[in-house]
Amino acid sequence: MKPMLQINSLKKQYGSSTVALNGIDLEVHPNEFIAVIGPSGAGKSTLLRCINRLIDPTEGSISFQGQEIVGAGKKQLRQIRSQIGMIFQHYNLVDRLSVLENVLHGRLGQMSAFNGVFSRYSEADKLAAIALLEKLGLEEQIYKRADELSGGQKQRVGICRALAQKPSLILADEPIASLDPNSSRIVMDSLHANCIEQGIACLVNLHQVDVAKRYATRIVGIKSGKVVFDGKPEELTDRMTQHIYEGKEHQMFQQGVPVEQAV
Amino acid sequence: MKKIRIGHKSTQRQQRWFVGLMVILFFPCFFYLKLDLNQFKDGLHQIPHIANMMMQMSFDQFPDLMDGLLTSLIIAFLTVVISVVISFFLAFVIATNTAPVPLLAKIIRAIIVIIRTIPVTIWVLLAVASIGFGSMAGVLGLIFPTVAFLTRVFSDQIDEAGKDIIEAVKAVGGGWWNLVFNGVTPQLMTAFLASIAFNFEITVAETVILGIVGAGGIGVLLQEYISFYDFKPLTLGILIVFITLFLLEMTTNLIRLRLSGRGHK
């Protein structure tokens, strides 16, 4: 099967000395739910942001559905971005807008600037957005202001916004790092279920290995800007985990629960 | 017995140097200006006289003063409205997060620094000199420093709080206009409004003072009363200005408190 996303020897350097990514090769196929694990500072976040060019990579190539992302022009980049959903650790919702407006923001990439600026969303988009919110259990919150919601609810709105793009790939950057275990479970369940159901490939940055093992079809371990593990969750041995988190072992537990007990 | 030292040595030395230098500079400065204590003494017995005249407040000029006050407020309002429109766009052009052309942003930022280093009074004097006395000169002269101030404040707010939202709008494929109007503006609306209220307060105070150099409004009347030693209406004028600015500050404080209090709906 042809990969939908192909990353070749991707490098990102900050300044003259800090190397965040040091030659990443990665292929993503349709319907994959990939967890990217690694200690903080390993470059997980940079990798995800390079894929939709929120960060410009220094070297390498990224091809998404046959289109080259590195070096794409402004218009092409916007078009590519509109097909890639993104979910953020801090949700990145507009606090003063309603939940529905935040979800409709997912449509902005596919609208004219004029229609976008004046919030002239089509009725079909509105219906689809409401349906999404209902599906993720937020029907009571549709007209609330985004800052009235709890963290878990905000993240589900973030998921709805990404799904509203009708993307073929979703990038989730530490989606549950700011949430309690219960909200984390709801958020991961919604993300996982919707991606599988709609055939959306997903790259999730996680630092909890137990969560990664529970949901992922494939796990990619990153350490100091390099891929050190790429395989099925069953193949991720404790030794490998320890190697990935070498020196930062405490980060592989969620809320202090050791890996074995949590799985 | 030797006393135990408790201070931090270099800090103390620094302070001693500072105070010493001020004392040394004070005397030459004092004599340079030829400050005359006798002039001060002679003037002292005038104070009760002037105070007495100022106590006899007259309301004859009340309509004129109110008219002047209204003009001042209108000058301030127009200045702020025009400046808000201009600086809103400039802010997005120069904020590091949203600058479409980095070089242009640098140039505008440099111009703003230049405008801000020139005092407001000079700007108004320049306007008066080029287009003559009156309200138009007031608005024109005040627009430059006000635009510079607001642009700076807005762009700082965008840089500080807009980052997450900008990432989100970019990630869905939104363009520059979407960043500005769908993302940052709604997110920062309260912060912007609070800055505008604060700026309006400053501008009213400036308008009153700058009337004295010919920029129209109540300041022009005050200037006339002072030059004709007409203390009776002057007192009323000062009182009106005081009450206006006091009320204005109370109101803007209230507005800013409301806005920052995140009052829902």
TrEMBL record, chain A:
Cytoplasm as UniProt keyword: no
Record-annotated ABC transporter domain positions: 5-249
Keywords: ATP-binding, Cell membrane, Membrane, Nucleotide-binding, Phosphonate transport, Translocase, Transport
Pfam families, alphabetized: ABC_tran
Highest taxon of the lineage: Bacteria
Molecular function GO labels: ATP binding
Cited PANTHER family: AMINO ACID IMPORT ATP-BINDING PROTEIN, PHOSPHONATES IMPORT ATP-BINDING PROTEIN PHNC
Cited NCBIfam families: ABC_phnC
Official protein name in the record: Phosphonates import ATP-binding protein PhnC
Biological source species: Paenibacillus glycanilyticus
Gene symbol of the encoding locus: phnC_2
From TrEMBL, chain B:
Positions of transmembrane segments: 16-33, 69-95, 107-129, 135-155, 204-222, 234-255
Membrane topology, record value: Multi-pass membrane protein
A family per Pfam: BPD_transp_1
UniProt record similarity statement: Belongs to the binding-protein-dependent transport system permease family.
Main localization category: membrane
Protein's cellular compartments: Cell membrane
Keyword Cell membrane tagged: yes
Keyword Protein biosynthesis found: no
Stored CDD domains: TM_PBP2
InterPro entries hit by this protein: MetI-like, MetI-like_sf
Keywords from the UniProt entry: Cell membrane, Membrane, Transmembrane, Transmembrane helix, Transport
Superkingdom of source: Bacteria
All residue ranges annotated as the ABC transmembrane type-1 domain in the record: 69-251
This protein's name: ABC transmembrane type-1 domain-containing protein
